[in-house]
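Hey, does this match?
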Amino acid sequence: MAAMKRVAIVTGAAKPDSIGFAVARGLMEEGCEVVVADLYTEGFAAFSGLCVRTNVSDPASVEAMVAHAMKKHGRIDILVNCVGGSWGITEQDLRAAPRATFLGLENCGDSDWRTILGANLDSAFYCCRAVAPHLKAQGGAIVNIASVAARKGIPPGAIGSSGPYAVAKAGIMALTRQLALELGPFGVRVNCVAPGVIASGRFLKVSAMVESGKGPEGPLANIPLGRVGTVGETAALIVALCTDDAAYMTGVTIDENGASYAA
């Protein structure tokens, strides 16, 4: 009898220049059935499996997506929460250039605060909550995405970024630790990756807006390894955390930033 294929949900996987896209491809190479959940429907054509238009900041939309995945596949084994960004991740944001400014906490209005936390922290909570009962049925893995910004903040004036983003990503680390405690007895592992500056499509757009040598998290010269990371490097780490190679790892945040946090 053939082994049952694992089913993975990857949010924010539809943009071809994103970490989520590379994660989805990597999980497919590992033999998983991948469900793509995204608002960027133009990218769905790149996948042959189930793609669901999902606003992960809306709990009802998340619940409907998970129900759709269960109806098609009958199980969920993996969740990777890749949706995130320094501003809101609305359909308009996905198709527009980053804001050519920095939004700090002292001048952040209620609307921006709720939108940024909704895209980065609430979204992961809603998705984890929705899949937890299904993961508990047979065990599985969740990987959340934080940021080096959660460790060291974002320098004021960093174009294309925001203070609320750093706060939200710090919350992702705490969410990961708490869920690891709650879901561990059911064989569900919960880990987190905190990337530094990664050469995603967003980074390239921000780089085109600022002077050479600067990025959304500050001066690139502050990276001891001497370069930014690649989407492929980040995705490979995330995929590895979803596999049995990391079977005894849970509740951990892995920093992937070229030692920029230590500098």
Q: What stands out?
A: Residues 110-135 form the longest helix (26 residues).
